[in-house]
Amino acid sequence: MPTAPQRVGRRERNKQEKLDRITAAASELFAEHGVDEVTTQQIADKADIGTGTLFLYAKNKGELLLLVQNSTYAEALVEGKAAAEEVPGVLDAVMAIIGPVVACNRKQIDNGRTYLREMVFGDPAEPHHREALSLTVQTEEAFAAILQRDQRIDAETAATLAHVASAVMFISMAATVNIGRTVDEILDEIRGQIQALLPR
Amino acid sequence: MPTAPQRVGRRERNKQEKLDRITAAASELFAEHGVDEVTTQQIADKADIGTGTLFLYAKNKGELLLLVQNSTYAEALVEGKAAAEEVPGVLDAVMAIIGPVVACNRKQIDNGRTYLREMVFGDPAEPHHREALSLTVQTEEAFAAILQRDQRIDAETAATLAHVASAVMFISMAATVNIGRTVDEILDEIRGQIQALLPR
DNA sequence: ACTCACAACTGATCGCAGTCAGATAATATT
DNA sequence: AATATTATCTGACTGCGATCAGTTGTGAGT
């Protein structure tokens, strides 16, 4: 007797398997060689699918990177949020969130910068792009919540400052001048800027 | 008798003429159709030069856009700086600089966003890119000077806040969510953020 | 079991940015 | 003035991301 009939048909399962293979292939190749040194053909070959099929699962190469990296950023955010709970100071708590995100972003600098580029300049209608934007929103919400620990900051200002902090993060991670910097150096730079916009 | 011998030889003059033709051709085509809808081939044809020659004058298409647009931004900055002199309030003075720059950036939205993308992610070794970065530095210096009108802001903090303001501008102009917004709406958004980071 | 409709897949093909080996033109040397 | 040297130019070519007309696989209808 065969196993109980699957709720989902063969189609769905095939699709899921292909998506998994694509994700695995792209993930490995990007991590090893960097997004610019990997061709979509290589990814398709490694995932054992046709060239065109790849673009049914991600509209373009940038989306492919978002697909691969989103989950890593989501983890970094969860980790940072948890750490921030344990930290009393506002500035330190905000930095507790930023730390893991910057670390994640800098694991492979080219990929990290391309991820940011794609987030700001890519097509927001695409699903993986939406997910990435949602992570930014969540990050800003976490910032805003922390900022409101300070009695002098009202909800609206907190949201605005959170958005500013997000912009600061983006530029510090993306800027060409920072390519040579270590994670800690970048964190110092960000800390200095966020400190400056907190009430004195 | 021929005119007095040129200080510069024929080579230099030819080069300058070609650069002028390239700039004019690219400028017109970009303005009319947008950078994405223009091929480098079209630019080369219109400038009456070979395909390869184009890339002796600008390393890539992005550099070509910087070459064409830098002067416009430089003008906007000069205009904004002059306007800021006449404005008493710190926030208003900062906005007086930002106004013309945003207007310049939004004259053709796609080109404006591509310009920003190129500035952050392009090759900073290239000459036109360096010039663009220099404009950012000048803008931040102007911000810092204005911020120091406020006695509570010391020089170091002014420089830091100027950098933050610059990041805010970048994100507001580049963000996909803002594509549909008017210049005034974007300026309002920026104003709100800059106000939030000024001492209250 | 067979057929039909449509979702999913495929790789040959396209358009474009950017390259490079060879051609050409400007200056330096004799 | 002839020749050598070197700067500049050129377009055929390459490699890549992305497309799309045609094929294949899946499941619904009879």
UniProtKB/TrEMBL annotation, chains A, B:
Show the InterPro entries listed in the entry. Homeodomain-like_sf, HTH-type_TetR-like_transc_reg, HTH_TetR
- For this protein, the DNA-binding region equals 39-58
User: Pfam families given for it?
Assistant: TetR_N
Keyword list (alphabetical) reads: DNA-binding, Transcription, Transcription regulation
Q: Where is the HTH tetR-type domain?
A: 16-76
Highest taxon listed in the record's lineage: Bacteria
Q: Does the keyword rRNA-binding apply?
A: no
By its UniProt entry, which Gene3D superfamilies does this protein fall under? Answer: Tetracycline Repressor, domain 2
Keyword DNA-binding belongs to the record? yes
As one GO molecular function, the record gives: transcription cis-regulatory region binding
User: Could you identify this protein by its name?
Assistant: TetR/AcrR family transcriptional regulator
Q: What is the lineage of its organism?
A: Bacteria, Bacillati, Actinomycetota, Actinomycetes, Glycomycetales
